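Morning F.,

Quick status update on the modeling queue. The single chain you submitted on Monday has been processed. Sequence for confirmation:
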Amino acid sequence: MPAVRSAASARLATEDDLEAVVPVIQAARADSPLGPQFIAPASSTLSAQLRTWYGMSGSTLAIAEQDKTVTGFALARVVPPNLFSDISHVQLEALYVAQGGRRRGAGRMMVHQVALAAARAGAEWVVTMPLTGARSEQRFLSGLGFSPAGSRRVAETASLLRRLDPPGRVRERRPRALDELIARRRRSRGLPETPPGGVDLSRLADRVSQRESTSMHVNRDVHTRRWDSSSSTIS
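Structure tokens below.
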């Protein structure tokens, strides 16, 4: 006979639960939309960060359990009225269920705990930013009545700085720390730090970006050039 899957449950976490949440946070980091992290922090570091967050005023930590094992977590906090909002709301900062604990209602039950915490705090809205951005996560939130309100976009810092450089500006030498960061990123993806043939792709991208900026500048000058009123027309 096939093994009977035990039902999942959810509740608000206590301080004694924090250590059991750390491995699930590590699994969530591996599913991050930003890709693999350069440096995986030690469990003790994550534990200290989680304890600090847990002790903040207005924070809520809900956990899902199965067979007395933590399989998911939901991090939320109350955001009071501020410059951009006249009412308080609850920000659901992270909602995650580990692979082995999915499709058992764990996520739904944790959101229920967050909604109860929002009602107790007098918050009129629950706002969330999907953690992984996966289509299944989007469908889950939509099924609970979460409506789109903007979107998240990600840009690589080095690429963003290249695009923001004014045309014609003398480009400053990139800090050594940024070069090391790019090299670590390439190693984490299994790519050589310098491609075969000795061509540095990041420097090549810099030169291409400079050429594109110069071309745009010249084209703009051509399109905006006015006809010389002193010239004559032969009909």
